[in-house]
Design a protein that fits this description.
The chain has helices spanning about 5-10, 50-80, 90-110, 145-150; strands at about 20, 25, 30, 40-45. By secondary structure, the chain is mainly α. The strands form two sheets. The protein has a two-stranded antiparallel sheet. A hairpin with a 2-residue loop joins strand 1 (about 20) and strand 2 (about 25). Helix 2 (about 50-80) crosses helix 3 (about 90-110) and helix 2 (about 50-80) packs across helix 4 (about 145-150). The two termini are about 30 Å apart. About 10% of the residues are buried.
Length: about 150
């Protein structure tokens, strides 16, 4: 577990940015896919959306995840350190990602071209341990309230 995740769970990361939506306190959160459990600090898509607000929420969350993945693709192309699997310390890899983001922003502001040949082949990720169920039962208490509040605010 990274120090960033510990700070998010403890409520000490961006603690002044809480928002009240639909009578629910929404704190900063991470975005995950179906392999992760829904938590107050980790949002994921509705598994079987039935209402318009759920479809909109899924579309917005998926779009955001795609933008983040695209940015990390550029980070990997420019700085191959982020690709290598030899980095096992979550705190260090978080620091590397932050530095790559800062350097990327400097390059973007300076109009440094990105060469598509820098892109690296997708890496196959291997899950360690049992797969988590891709449905909502058993999710962290209050997490569905946060997701509902976020979906209603779109």
């Amino acid at each position: 577990e990274s120090s960033l995740r510990r700070r998010i769970v403890a409520g000490t990361w961006l603690h002044d940015t809480d928002d009240i939506l639909e009578d629910c306190c929404v704190k900063p959160y991470l975005i995950g896919d179906g392999a992760f459990p829904l938590e107050r600090q980790l949002m994921k898509c509705y598994t079987n959306p039935q209402f318009d607000h759920q479809h909109l929420f899924n579309k917005a969350l998926t779009s955001t995840r795609q933008k983040i993945e695209h940015a990390f693709g550029k980070y990997k192309g420019r700085w191959h350190i982020i690709v290598y699997n030899h980095i096992k310390d979550p705190t260090f890899i978080s620091d590397v990602a932050i530095v790559c983001a800062a350097l990327h922003n400097i390059c973007e502001r300076a109009n440094c071209p990105f060469n598509d040949r820098w892109n690296v082949a997708p890496v196959e990720y291997v899950r360690v341990g049992p797969a988590l169920p891709p449905h909502d039962p058993g999710n962290q208490p209050g997490s569905c309230d946060v997701r509902y509040a976020l979906s209603q605010s779109l």
